[in-house]
Amino acid sequence: MIKIGKPQVKSDAQTATLSANITIDGDCKEVWFKVDKKFEDYLCYERGDAYVIAVLNYAMRNHHDIVSEAPLSEDLYYNIDKYLVDAIAQYNKDFYRPQITAEVASDRLPCAGAVATGISCGVDSMHALANQTAMKFKKHNITHLTFNNVGSHGEGEHAEKLYQARLERPRAFAKEYGFEFVASDSNLQNVVLQNHLKSHTYSSMFAVYCLQKLYSVYYYASAGYKYSEFTLIDKPAICCGSYEMLSLPLFSTHNLRVYSEGENMSRLTKLRSIVKYAPSYKYLNVCLKDGDNCGKCEKCVRTLLGIDALGALDNYAEVFDIDYYRKHKKWYLQQMLIQMAHNKHDYFEMYPYFKSEITLDMRIKVLPYTIENTIRKLIPRDSWLFNVLKSIKHKI
Ligand SMILES: [Zn+2]
């Protein structure tokens, strides 16, 4: 059983905090969500919505019912109870279908009408900014940029440090281009322990629903699944984004509409919009390492090849070492072939742009990777032979 106490708001001179006690099997802990004091009026203490979403995936995986002392918004409660949990439980035998007990609140909360998206300055957030600003659809143009600490930076002190370090670039972007910046810190990930890959939609919607009186539209960056890849089945390499086409509309109400921004789009399709969005020339940051783009990690390589394919390299001299890329183009093309040998979809899309530059020795060098991948496909994972080959590979 998971019991959620009534959320409360406390504030000091600089910050405002929404908090509620969550009791899991008798163990009670406070889960807090902290923002700048100027957002105090938008913290939603009237409903248990944010907290029920926060524990929902955990409850299904760990077989708990949920009781919320605060009422739940009718639309959201209905969507979760009548559609979402049944759909997920139907396709996953190990999952439990939780009973959710709470009063129903049918009155509408006030809403400031902000339109927001998360910002990391990576491809997904830059795509949202490139596509959801300066539109004729006035109620849908982004006004607020959010940066949350609800699991994407890890857990504990390490997450707190990483969150603080990563905060500055998005903050500077928001200031330079005139967006409101909503930074939020939370201990959710330290209390409700779960795999972020499997629960990011839920923890992110916790952050959104804590401020549900602020937002009328929220663009949540798509996890990159195509419509044809939609699945509710919880396989090891698949994240909860595989069913966000279902979950995000169900996490929407008459007050707040959540979109899966950029869904069904490939990386190159997203980049096509980004290269026309001038603020990205100064701020695009995709690196797997923290700090400036290293130019050599998988995400930097993929992005450099993408902007080269689209003929936009020179625009990105402030954020990438373009001279280094040009001098070492052969190495980058080799990386593309290796990723293709591993069946990474993004690179197949770029290949036609570089086909004429691929030499015979590049193709020969990639042969061991192609053979390895072919063997992998033929031998079932976790079979006796697969494990023997894996151990031989590690010894080499
Ligand atoms: Zn990098």
Mean pLDDT: 93
**What small molecules does this complex bind?**
zinc ion
Q: Largest beta sheet, briefly?
A: 11 strands, mixed
The number of distinct helices, counting runs of at least 4 residues, comes to: 17
The number of E-state strands comes to 13
The secondary-structure class comes to alpha/beta
- Residue stretches low in confidence (pLDDT < 50, at least 5 long) are none
Radius of gyration: 23 Å
Q: What is the strand content?
A: 15-25%
User: What's the structural domain tally?
Assistant: 2
Give the helix proportion (percent range). Answer: 40-55%
- Between the first and last Cα atoms, what is the distance in angstroms? 50 Å
- Give me the strand/helix succession: EEEEHEEHEEEHEHHEHHEHEHHHHHHHHH
Overall shape:
globular
Short description:
By secondary structure, this protein is an alpha/beta fold. The protein is built from 17 helices and 13 strands.
Characterization of the model:
The chain is α/β, with parallel strands linked by helices and about 400 residues long. Helix content is about 45%, strand content about 15%. It has helices at about 50-60, 75-90, 125-130, 155-165, 170-175, 190, 195-210, 245-250, 265-275, 280-285, 300-310, 320-325, 330-340, 345-355, 360-365, 365-380, 385-395; strands at about 1-5, 10, 15-25, 25-35, 65-70, 70-75, 100, 105, 115-120, 145-150, 180-185, 215-220, 255-260. The strands form two sheets. Strands 1, 2, 3, 4, 5, 7, 9, 10, 11, 12 and 13 form an eleven-stranded mixed sheet that branches. A two-stranded parallel sheet has the order 6-8. Helix 8 (about 245-250) links the parallel strand 12 (about 215-220) and strand 13. It is globular. Zinc ion binds near residues 287, 293, 294 and 300.
